[in-house]
Amino acid sequence: MSVAKKEYKRITTKSLVDMKANGEKIAMLTAYDFSMAKIVDGAGIDVILVGDSASNVMAGHETTLPITLDQMIYHATSVVRAINRSLVVVDLPFGSYQSDPKEALRSAIRIMKESGAHAVKLEGGKEVKESIKRILHAGIPVMGHLGLTPQSIYKFGTYTVRAREEHEAEKLKSDAKMLEKMGCFAVVLEKVPAQLAKEVAESISIPVIGIGAGKDVDGQVLVIHDMLGMTHEFNPRFLRRYADLHAEMTQAFENYRDDVKNKDFPSDEEQY
Ligand code: KIV
Questions:
Q1: What are the beta bridge partners of residue 209?
Q2: Per the entry, which co-factors are needed (predicted)?
Q3: What is the DSSP code string of 104-152?
């Protein structure tokens, strides 16, 4: 059943700002490959994030830090080939934008030119202001990401909720306002108290997309492997599982194994 208030043939950065203004929530999911992106796009998900969480769920790394710009472009290119409607946002990976604004711009240009994606996302506030400015000046839409920013996991030392302390909450609020003022089209808030996320969403005109940030924000994002129940060892409170693909896939693989071993597959009808 469709719950969209207005039909959007193609989602643009402007559509998202309009959705916020009209009180329509934004649905965003990650995807990293053609086949999955085709299903996600066909299901009417507004934004597909080619997240650097690919480092975890696709490559099996412990953190998002190892994934490279070339690898992100590979994933983004596969996703872009699949989409008809969704807006495709690609994460700038760790090390591709923090050290130098010119390098940040080069990285963003490579993503846009080589993959055909529509926007980039990067983590941080004031610390990366000059990089954001450069990228925006080149006409590339930027989505911010504040709160629990996984590329800084070794600074935080833990994946627990961020900005519970007054000083961190104040910084987050002022960073969100800065991102809005600079011209970012949206901001992700990850794992922060719901009341703080609500205040931020009410204080800026660009959409706030939450992950573990409560219901009073303008949209939600989940990592697709988590919401499909493929990563059953990852169980944060904010995660709602919409399927148990781990169980279903395991069952399918076991059935196939048994059919092969028992000489049940292929049957006479399944051969030439
Ligand atoms: O990389 C990612 O999947 C993300 C989401 C968690 C927002 O940045």
A1: 188, 219
A2: Mg(2+)
A3: HHHHHHHHHHHH--SEEE---SGGGHHHHHHHHHTT--EEEEEES-GGG
Tell me the pLDDT tens digit for each residue of 60-90: 999 999 999 999 999 999 999 999 999 999 9
Q: How far apart are the C-alpha atoms of 42 and 26, rounded to whole Å?
A: 16
Q: Active-site residue among 190, 199, 248, 270? A: 190
Task: Give the contacts of 212 (CB within 8 A, at least 6 positions apart).
Answer: 148, 161, 190, 191, 192, 236, 237, 238
Q: At 95, which amino acid appears?
A: G
Residue 195 lies in a domain: yes
Answer whether 200's CB lies under 8 Å from 208's CB.
yes
**How does pLDDT run across 227-268, given as a tens digit for each residue?**
999 998 889 999 999 999 999 999 999 999 999 999 999 999
Candidate from 90, 94, 96, 211 with most ligand 1 atoms within 8 A of CB, to mutate? 211
> Considering the entire predicted model, what is its pTM?
0.97
What is the rounded radius of gyration, in angstroms, for the C-alpha atoms of the chain? 20
For residue 52, the ligand 1 atom closest to its alpha carbon is: 1
Range of the domain at 191: 13-241
Query: Is it the case that residue 59 has pLDDT exceeding 60?
Result: yes
One domain for residues 256 and 187? no
Residue 101 and residue 208 share a domain: yes
- How far is the C-alpha of 114 from the C-alpha of 119, rounded, in Å? 13
> Rounded to an integer, what distance in angstroms lies between the CA atom of residue 162 and that of residue 53?
19
